[in-house]
Amino acid sequence: MINIFRCLLHFVIVVILTVITQIGGVAYLLSLVFKKYIARVGKLKFGYGFLLFAIFYGLLWGGSIFIAPQFGRVALPCFSDQTDKIAVQSPLYCLLNRHYVTPKLLELGNALASSIDARFPRTQTQALDANFPFFDKFPLLPHLSHDDGRKLDIAFYYRNDKNEYVVGKTKSPIGYWGFEQPTDSRSQLCSNNDDNWNLRWDMDWFQFLNKQHYQLDRERTSVALQWLANQGQSYKVSKIFVEPYLAKRLGVSNKIIRFQGCRAARHDDHIHIQIAK
């Protein structure tokens, strides 16, 4: 009975690690194999299992950077001091292996960052969730469509309580869930939605982590949204998701700026972009 429970536990861990990182399940299985081998040839000390997992995960993570181009993906930069280049907002996305895009989407991201920095010097454009390095149609939960390297979430730009732009900072520590709010309840298309299955979480429990004194930098965010909707089409931008009330507030309108629907996550905390093949 104990062995069955242990096997079931290992299976669950493999599934969870695979779902959130794509490579974590493989790293965990390798650590189990080598852990058994070490236990046979010598005395196994506490913590060896986690150390082995960390080693294998690190090797697979590093190897993914070199193998991903064979699957049509490249890694977004995890750290960058160049404001004219896009960078990942938090090391968490890199650690979880969720920072891969197609070369064309990386080109788009860098062009956006360069354009915004030229208009507003020292402005850092930041990426949130992108995609895993391998295989199309492998889901990037909880997203519904980040499964082919052609989708990317872009963080908003923010100002502090002194009305100064904050370089490389977001209202939320992870870029998501620092929601804007409609001033008119009628502007929220899904406020009366009775659908029992949707991803429109308000994340009330998370809000204490947000920098509440940070306010949306409307000018930078509006210019970025306009650039994506216009110049972005030369980079094959085909869809942009942002809440309709927010697009209206920012004064941006275009046929490729769309409402993602009431079953998908809220898009008044980030901009979702996707490019055509």
Report on the structure:
This protein is 35% helix and 11% strand. The protein is α/β, with parallel strands linked by helices and 277 residues long. The protein folds into two domains: 2-69, no CATH class; 74-275, Muramoyl-pentapeptide Carboxypeptidase, domain 2 (2-Layer Sandwich). A four-stranded mixed β-sheet has the order 5-10-8-9, covered by helices on one side. Helix 1 (2-21) packs across helix 2 and helix 2 (24-41) crosses helix 3. Keywords: Membrane, Transmembrane, Transmembrane helix. InterPro entries: Zn_M74/Hedgehog-like.
Between the first and last Cα atoms, what is the distance in angstroms?
51 Å
Structural class: alpha/beta
Q: Give me the strand/helix succession.
A: HHHEEHEHEEEEHEHEE
> Please, how many domains?
2
The number of helical segments is 7
Transmembrane segments: 12-34, 46-68
InterPro entries: Zn_M74/Hedgehog-like
Keywords: Membrane, Transmembrane, Transmembrane helix
